[in-house]
Amino acid sequence: MAAVALRSCRRGLSQILSNGGLAALSSKRLEGDRRHKSTVQYASRPELPKLAYRRVKGKSPGVVFLPGYGSNMNGQKAEALEEFCRSLGHSYLRFDYTGHGASEGVFAEGTIGTWKKDVLFVLDELAEGPQIMVGSSIGGWLMLLAAIARPEKTAALVGISTAADHIVTSFNTLPLEARKEFEEKGEWTVPTKHSEEGVYKFSMNFLREAENHCVLQSPIPITCPVRLIHGLKDEDVPWHISMQVAERVLSPDVDVILRRHGQHRMSEKEDIKLMVYTIDDLIDKLTTMV
């Protein structure tokens, strides 16, 4: 099983923090050049909705960002990563899942399987060479599924508030009477502050389909470097899920990075800097290994 390290980050970030704190990393890497922001493109797929994406061409390994449930490719983390990758000259790709953002499709008809296919299409058709996949929340779950299916396209993984299996396990831990009530209604409503309606709605079909993609029941056949960042104050996805992922992946190179005051979205300035440093350190590690 994987060796799990609870620490600030690897050697590179530790040196940065000890030599003047978070400001020590070049501001150029964090700010980039906004004048050259990527443009939205659309990828056509036979008999499937078009996917909207933004791409920056550059060196390998590239970085692919996987947003969270109901989110899109224009969030703070996705934008910051583009600026960072552009400043380093590395390729970067962000996209919207089917039914999300600027992509075609109906959000309510999407499933974990649908969005997994989206990620695999992006890796197969839009990304060149092995990628560092950065998955936020449910994107962290999809990141794991994609890495299992495409090990040759996966250089490393960075999970942000990884929500592996979370929807399924949360429903299954409800009291029996509550589960029966939702099953009769055909829909499970979950209060959230991340939706305009104040709730997320999951159909029973969505939950049943999601069960087919659970990864925490057995060892996870992923052997690349894995970094898992999670906030201890995450009220949506408990941090111990990242610990479970770390314990189950087969990779010998796994770090869990816990943010004492971090919340679910991990979009505060210091959170984003930590994410960038972690990816910077991985790029350094991977390019040194070549």
Write the layout of secondary structure elements.
Layout lengths: L3 E3 L4 H8 L8 H5 L9 E5 L2 E9 L2 E8 L9 H13 L1 E6 L16 H15 L4 E6 L1 H12 L4 E7 L5 H7 L3 H10 L1 E5 L7 E5 H8 L14 E6 L8 H9 L5 E6 L9 H21 L1
Parallel strand pairs: 1-11, 4-5, 4-6, 6-7, 7-10, 10-11
Antiparallel strand pairs: 2-3, 3-5, 8-9
Word description of this protein:
The protein has helices at residues 11-18, 27-31, 76-88, 112-126, 138-149, 166-172, 176-185, 204-211, 240-248, 269-289; strands at 4-6, 41-45, 48-56, 59-66, 90-95, 131-136, 154-160, 187-191, 199-203, 226-231, 254-259. With 290 residues, it is of the alpha/beta class. Helix 4 (112-126) crosses helix 5. It starts with a strand and ends with a helix. The relative contact order is 0.17.
Low-confidence runs of at least 5 consecutive residues: 1-35
Say which CATH homologous superfamily of the domain at 39-164 and 223-289 is assigned. Alpha/Beta hydrolase fold, catalytic domain
Shape by Cα distribution:
globular
Strand order of the largest sheet: 1-11-10-7-6-4-5-3-2
Element order: H for helix, E for strand: EHHEEEHEHEHEHHEEHEHEH
Major β-sheet annotation: 9 strands, mixed
Query: How much helicity do the residues have?
Result: 25-40%
Based on the structure given, which CATH architecture of the domain at 39-164 and 223-289 is correct?
3-Layer(aba) Sandwich
Number of strands: 11
Instruction: Please count the helical segments.
Output: 10
Q: Mean of the pLDDT scores?
A: 89
